[in-house]
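Re: Re: ligand-bound prediction request (bumping)

Still looking for help on this. To restate: I need the protein modeled with adenosine monophosphate bound, output as structure tokens. Inputs repeated here so nobody has to scroll up.
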Amino acid sequence: MVVLKNVSEVENFIAQIKSDEETIGFVPTMGALHSGHLQLVQNAAKNNDHVVVSIFVNPTQFNNSEDLQNYPRTEDEDIKLLENSGCEIVFIPSVKEIYPDGETSEHFDFGGLENQMEGKFRPGHFDGVATVVKRLLEIVQPDQAYFGEKDFQQLRIIQELVIQFKLPTKIIPISIIREPDGLAMSSRNKRLTSEMRAEAPQIVKILNEAKLFYKNHTVAETKDWVVEQFKSTKLNLEYFEIADEKTLEPISEKSTKTASRGFVAVFAGQIRLIDNLSFS
Ligand code: AMP
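Reply:
Sorry for the wait, this slipped through. Here it is.
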């Protein structure tokens, strides 16, 4: 496994792989790696000749500078974790390397996908995500790139990004990897206090119960019920939405024609956590 810091070094490796007509699987991450990330890497290794993992805490996708500053950075541990994962190239660029002309994002129109849920509560977030992913896909030129359903809205937006810009990469979704108590794995879990870590599995518990409740109740009733459930926890609900999996538009009436999914964002103390579950 090699660790590369410069775009030009990565491009040289990629040129060699392409000239050998071999395939590349790519896993973009922000580091502080956990078993969820490794699941993406293992999938990439199984289905491609070469695997590239990037570790880059992308400043343009943070709408909160404190969150950016406090985002966990564990580069040495990350490299150790990747050693036997099937990853061959770890790309750890500096901010200058990715944003030579300054830290600004492009503006994108994903037909409204970017304005729902996370887009509403984190203004500019998806412009930042799409800017960095587009840049990374152009550098790495993967045949397949792996994204977790943990960030379902992000996954949908990246699927639109490759269509819109005709990028020759297939986007492969990977199911959410959870801790034994159900909490969705996340780099941010490292920052939870022990009190909040104990409380956080309530998120998926309530999502699972809401899915059952929804079978016999309306969307509005289910939403009210979820709000009430979170009131009896120490978690602060930011939003709960039942949305169409394709358009991400909130569902107001049940329909058997479209697949729906429950989406939630909460504050566990200072730490913001998201999760989602198929409601179909
Ligand atoms: P991040 O480092 O948080 O930007 O995540 C990098 C990639 O790993 C994204 O595609 C995430 O959706 C994915 N990912 C993070 N956590 C999980 C998880 N618990 N299960 C599945 N995929 C995940």
